[in-house]
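Re: that backbone. Tokens:
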């Protein structure tokens, strides 16, 4: 959801039951988007959406990518993911520490700049972002809703979610 003139609007416009969940204080909180078991989406192949991507950020903006970089790094990698299920993507392990390459990251663990930027984009109502590792340092970040990953950032220097090496 994003704030819009005092109203809360669902981020990305995904299908919704239209019902808001009321908190203890009676205020609107996040909507329930799907009636299905969320784990059932793990058995599906991913779908991508780019229309909400952050084009302008000085470091993570998509407009910073050349056409050649977009094709080589993003298009080709995303095409390879399309033959996998979300469960396959989530259990894909990588380096010597054998951590998962692709995973959810709580917003509270993201950099302060990423948290600030989410507020500017009116997308600060999400609890986590999903990280897809393309190379050792390059990540794509988005908000996962069901089988759809709504891209936010292209992070070429691993600064949205910095980790100590």
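Recovered sequence:
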């Amino acid at each position: 959801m994003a704030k819009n003139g005092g109203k809360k609007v669902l981020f990305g416009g995904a299908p919704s039951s239209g019902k808001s969940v009321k908190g203890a204080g009676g205020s609107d909180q996040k909507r329930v988007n799907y009636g299905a078991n969320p784990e059932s989406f793990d058995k599906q192949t991913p779908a991508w959406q780019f229309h909400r991507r952050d084009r302008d950020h000085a470091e993570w903006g998509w407009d910073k990518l050349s056409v050649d970089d977009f094709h080589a790094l993003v298009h080709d990698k995303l095409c390879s993911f399309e033959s996998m299920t979300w469960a396959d993507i989530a259990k894909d392990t990588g380096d010597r520490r054998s951590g998962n390459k692709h995973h959810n990251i709580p917003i509270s663990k993201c950099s302060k700049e990423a948290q600030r930027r989410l507020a500017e984009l009116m997308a600060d109502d999400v609890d986590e972002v999903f990280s897809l590792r393309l190379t050792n340092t390059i990540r794509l970040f988005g908000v996962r809703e069901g089988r759809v990953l709504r891209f936010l950032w292209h992070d070429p220097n691993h600064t949205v979610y910095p980790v100590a090496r």
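Confidence is low (pLDDT under 50) at residues 1-27. The chain has one domain: 37-155.
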